[in-house]
Design goal:
Number of domains: 1
CATH class: Alpha Beta
Distance between the termini: 31 Å
CATH topology: Rossmann fold
Largest sheet: 7 strands, mixed
Order of helices and strands: HEHEHEEHEHEE
Number of helices: 5
Strand order of the largest sheet: 3-2-1-4-5-7-6
Radius of gyration: 15 Å
Number of strands: 7
CATH superfamily: Vaccinia Virus protein VP39
Strand content: 25-35%
Structural class: alpha/beta
Shape: globular
Length: 180
């Protein structure tokens, strides 16, 4: 789940560091899953990606559309219930799939499948330790130790960590590339 206190902030520095490592020729279609108001989708558009931003909140998507229009950026927004049974994201469709502050375990196979061959995945969200620090506290939305690595086994791991960040926030981070 996306905590509202993060939606209006700048993109996560850890996400920006990953984006900086992707060579320009590898850019193409990008998917921002559970985008909220689109702080990361806007950054992807600034970097030249064709962005598809998904969220269930019509209000958040309207704010993203307005912000994109004001910045002269093209972002395609789609209202989607990512937690509906059988939700799909398209197979091998995206050069980059980005997920921040969101976990719905039944969607993990669809996220995995959506990354194109040689495409990138950036996934960062809260771990079980977060429940002791503040919201979110529901274990359904908190990663177990090593869960991202297990969920994306077979991907080339470019960066991975699980640690406590300022805030305090207990986070897991994965930057990976799908094999050809």
């Amino acid at each position: 789940m996306s905590p509202p206190q993060h939606e209006d902030q700048a993109p996560e520095p850890t996400v920006l560091a990953c984006l900086d490592r992707i060579e320009p020729q590898a850019r193409g279609r990008a998917l921002d899953v559970a985008c909220g108001r689109g702080r990361h989708g806007l950054e992807l558009a600034r970097r030249g990606y064709h962005v598809v931003a998904l969220d269930r909140s019509s209000e958040a998507l309207a704010r993203l559309e307005s912000a994109a229009r004001d910045a002269g950026l093209a972002v395609e927004t789609r209202r989607a219930d990512l937690e509906a049974p059988g939700a799909t994201l398209g197979a091998g469709t995206y050069a980059l799939v980005l997920v921040v502050n969101y976990l719905w375990r039944p969607l993990l196979p669809a996220i995995r499948s959506a990354v194109s061959p040689r495409g990138f995945l950036v996934y960062e969200t809260f771990t079980r330790q977060q429940a002791r620090l503040g919201k979110p506290t529901n274990p359904d939305f908190l990663l177990e130790p090593g869960e991202l690595l297990r969920s994306f086994a077979g991907f080339e791991i470019l960066d991975h960590w699980e640690r406590l960040l300022a805030g305090p926030r207990a986070r897991a981070h994965l930057f990976a590339r799908r094999p050809a």
